[in-house]
Amino acid sequence: MELRDLIDVDAAVRYVRSCQTEDGGYFFARVPPSSGADTWYALASLRYLDHAPSRSRATLHWLMSIRPTANPHDVYLRLRILRELNQPATPLMETAHALAALQRTDGGFGSTGPTYLEVDSELQTTYEAVFVLNSLGVAFDEERAATFVVRRYDAERDFGARLPSRAPTFYAYRTLALLGWPLPLEADQAAQHTTHDLPSFLDHLYWEVMCTRIAGRRTPSLSRVIDFVRGCQRPTGGFARSVLMGIPTLQWTFQALRVLRACIGNDGCNGTTP
Questions:
Q1: Residue 134: how many CB atoms within 10 A of its CB?
Q2: pLDDT tens figures, 78-100
Q3: How many Cα atoms sit within 13 Å of 185 on the Cβ side?
Q4: Which residues have a Cβ under 8 Å from the Cβ of 124 and sit 6 or more positions away?
Q5: Cβ of 262: how many Cβ atoms within 10 Å?
């Protein structure tokens, strides 16, 4: 089975390319300035669709024109974009060392202030920092980071168990896999907990599927998962968050393609790589 057998690939490619702005990056609203997150989603989506990005030099110029910071999310997106453009990560080394120096005493990275509703998990910034430092070979206290993730995940899981989102498990799995630590027993059991009633939203399904992959398991209810994702594609080619409502965005399109690639088994990567 190929991706083209499941969705309108040509329409999806047109949608993603239509979101490139005049400054070279991408933004689902199609007006500058571009978004770092949307630029990564777009480039990764084109890779899943087996199409090369257009105006890649303009995309690189846009990225390099923005001054980097040691914010975990910023450095993470920069590294992801550079990789999608097949560019060396050398320009990020100084920023990565600055990021390593910001590891908190509890082992985590990022702010300890209130978590905004838009943030899926407090573990997100720690995962992003670990991904960057691990990828670039920059030293940090890995044991302290792993201990923080396990402790924080226990707290988030207690809260997240009452919610449909698997985001805390998603980020805990990824971080621990990068650090070479075993998954917590409770997390391992949670990976088997994909219910027969599919989540109502694409991002929740994305987290479920990715968790099962990191745990080395096959996706349950495979045909229903594929049917749900296919139903999220809009006539313009992009994917919305749910079948019955919503406009397409680059984030939902990226997550839809990632889930489908995982389901048909030709994504060419493991669960630690989106």
A1: 17
A2: 999 999 999 999 999 999 999 99
A3: 0
A4: 73, 110, 167, 171
A5: 22
